[in-house]
Amino acid sequence: MVFGNDFHFSSSDIIVCLIWVACCSISEVNALPSQNFQVSAAVVPGCVIQGNGSGAWGTLDFGTHSAIDSVNITSSLVQNAAFQLICTPGITLNMTINGGSHYANSRNLKLAGQAQTISYRLFSQPGLTAASEIPVDKSVAINYGNSGNILLAVYGLLQLTGINRAGVYTDTLTVTMAW
Q: Is the pTM of the predicted complex or chain greater than 0.85?
């Protein structure tokens, strides 16, 4: 090597210099601190009601009958297609149904603008047995097969007595889901 204003390097000088740079670079890289960190996610079971519809969850329509009929009438809930209940597979799902807008010792349909009511009962099974009756504000298990589209099993029983005033009788119920 010659120093001064002119720099002259031999090939062996260049190799030594490159080895020195490589060694220093490797030792500096090895000297950098490193730490691990954990990555995780907790996925918890749950349910969601999807849809862009408005209005009621569904209807329980007992149909049209003569005011002088004395008969038991059954019906089942027809869910609004604008809504869809979706849950994590295997989740335990329960529902509670209140007494409705016209509750007085039982759920009642009421004639608009009048005091006249007609009592009705709700059940969780189509057989309408006492064991499957849905009590007011009591939790009832919902059995389902398709967690991607859960249908509520609600069946109604209305008893016409033959002395009913003519008109349209209605009620509004609130369903609360829990999981």
A: no
